Amino acid sequence: MLNVIGAFIATLITVPYIVYFLVNKSIYKLTKKKSKAIKAGTDSTTFFLFLAIERMTIEIWGQSYYWILLLLFLGGCILFTYVIWKKDLELSISKILRLNWRLQFLILSIGYFSLITYGVISRIFDA
């Protein structure tokens, strides 16, 4: 049983858009609100994208570049703090984190597909 759970989690980390699909469909069936389903899907997939990109960098280059992901996250927080501070006078940590989390989904999605493309091409040329 533990092997099945481990294989399921490994699959979700390897292909994080399965999480997006499952959460999106589940929330939409429960609430009938498409925007809420999309937001829940992106929020849950972002965590798996962090893990997937970290694993992909280890597979491609043999070492983890997790510190770059953390710097991207902190940079996004600083960026949104500055933008919200200039626009509004009221800083809300939850608003900053929510906006940054969704920005990270966009950045990590681009990184995920870039790493898949790079990994496939490099494996073809190595073979």
Q: What does the model show?
A:
The chain crosses the membrane at residues 6-24, 65-85, 105-125. InterPro entries: DUF3397. Keywords: Membrane, Transmembrane, Transmembrane helix. Helix content is 88%, strand content 0%. It has one domain (2-126). The radius of gyration is 17 Å and the shape is globular. The mean pLDDT is 92. It has helices at 2-14, 17-31, 34-61, 66-87, 93-126. It is mainly alpha-helical.
Tally of separate helices: 5
Helical content band: over 70%
N- to C-terminal distance: 36 Å
**Total domain units:** 1
Mean pLDDT: 92
What is the β-strand count? Answer: 0
Query: Radius of gyration, Cα only, in angstroms?
Result: 17 Å
Largest sheet: none
Query: Which stretches of 5+ consecutive residues score pLDDT under 50?
Result: none
Structural class comes to mainly alpha
Strand content: under 5%
Q: Name the assembly state.
A: single chain
Shape: globular
SSE sequence, one letter per element: HHHHH
InterPro entries: DUF3397
Organism: Fictibacillus barbaricus
Pfam families: DUF3397 (PF11877)
Transmembrane segments: 6-24, 65-85, 105-125
